[in-house]
Amino acid sequence: MNPPYVLLFLFLILLRGRGAGECNVPTRNKTPLRTPPEPTTNTPNTEPSHTTKDDFLDFFIYGYYGLGLPLIFDEVDPFHENELWDLIKANKTQIVLHKINNSSAIMAEPKDKSRYLKVVAISDTHNQMAGVTIPDGDVLIHAGDLTNDGEYERLVEFNNQMGLLPHPHKLVIGGNHELGFDVFENKTKRRPRDQPLGTEEGWKLLTNVTYLLDQSVKIDGVKFYGSPYHALPGFPFYKNRKNGLREVWERVPSDVDVLITHSPPLGYLDLFRNDRWGCRYLLEKVEKYQPKFHIYGHVHQSYGAMTNGKTTFLNAAQCDPKNKIQDRPFVFWIEKKTGTNP
Ligand SMILES: *[C@@H]1O[C@H](CO)[C@@H](O)[C@H](O)[C@H]1NC(C)=O
Ligand SMILES: *[C@@H]1O[C@H](CO)[C@@H](O)[C@H](O)[C@H]1NC(C)=O
Ligand SMILES: *[C@@H]1O[C@H](CO)[C@@H](O)[C@H](O)[C@H]1NC(C)=O
Ligand SMILES: *[C@@H]1O[C@H](CO)[C@@H](O)[C@H](O)[C@H]1NC(C)=O
Ligand SMILES: CC(=O)N[C@H]1CO[C@H](CO)[C@@H](O)[C@@H]1O
């Protein structure tokens, strides 16, 4: 940590301690959402109370994001959607789903397995694929943040690991940590430490997978669509919620069956501490198109499974908030459409 950072850090701790850290930010919710969303039972999000020790940890883990600095530097972006979620949550259906019989499956195996695709979903492995026990299946989905910094050697390693897995279809999208994957990124807006890092067009190293960038792929008639954008400033694939983020979701095809994004939608397994990091426009699309499944990660704190009655939401992050792998993939089945839709 160089001296300006130490000073900035101490200054911010001071601000937070006096409760003044939030005054700079007109959009910030003064009474953040602290209760779990209703009518859930057994919610996976338990929010620990906030301490200065957490601030120190956050600083090392998230850099200045843990301290809320983007709120000051990027005043255009609301950064979280707490106020909106508080307004709309009463009308949302949220039922927490649990894995069955301690397996990775969130549903019972279908009787006639040949009519279904078995799908395995993971996300946010952060260079630790070796720590995840991946069940076999027809399709393996990785919803981004395969690396920490888009490191060349780690991309080669990830590709080799994917090559060894038996799944006939492997679908991967980028996340905010894949530095170099976003050809439109303004690199001067990265955290200073990140600016020299990454691998330009690093996805080209991923020869053993199907890399999806605003693209769809049909497998046995089932349409999968993948897209990496998120609202966390300073990283690849960042889009401003007031300008750009809504537009990228316009590319999602209305007949999508399995939506893969790095960002959560608003309100569904998207809590970072007390802040809703999910995207309102993504939620609008999901509610409109009603894909059977929506797979994402990004917010490690909110790993879990949920349904609104139409769509099953899976935050498949394999890392915990401290980037430590937890080895907890998801498995589900989706009916093939080959018979009805040749
Ligand atoms: C919730 O739904 C009810 C009944 O449809 C409607 O009257 C009310 O305006 C809705 N509230 C919000 C905040 O959307
Ligand atoms: C799951 O595993 C835990 C710990 O091994 C055990 O206590 C529990 O009974 C198991 N639950 C089921 C449904 O098998
Ligand atoms: C648990 O359930 C899954 C899904 O139905 C099934 O594939 C698996 O065989 C079951 N495991 C045991 C030990 O019963
Ligand atoms: C990139 O960001 C910098 C710093 O905010 C800004 O000055 C510059 O105009 C941006 N460049 C482009 C091409 O948007
Ligand atoms: C199974 C498989 O296709 N493995 C390939 C993974 O990618 C490396 C590098 O491109 C190839 O050498 C492997 O054959």
UniProtKB/TrEMBL annotation:
InterPro entries on file: Calcineurin-like_PHP, Metallo-depent_PP-like, UPF0046_metallophosphoest
Task: Note whether Signal occurs among the keywords.
Answer: yes
Q: Which residues form a coiled coil?
A: none
Query: Where does the source fall among the domains of life?
Result: Eukaryota
Query: Domain named Calcineurin-like phosphoesterase: which ranges?
Result: 118-301
Extract the ranges annotated as region (Disordered): 24-51
Cited Pfam families? Metallophos
Signal sequence coordinates: 1-21
- Extract the Gene3D superfamilies matched here: 3.60.21.10
Gene Ontology MF terms: hydrolase activity
Which keywords describe this protein according to UniProt? Signal
Is Signal one of the keywords?
Answer: yes
Q: List where Low complexity composition bias occurs.
A: 40-49
Q: Which PANTHER family match?
A: METALLOPHOSPHOESTERASE, UPF0046 PROTEIN K07C11.7
Q: Family assignment?
A: Belongs to the UPF0046 family.
Protein name as annotated: Calcineurin-like phosphoesterase domain-containing protein
- Organism of origin is Caenorhabditis brenneri
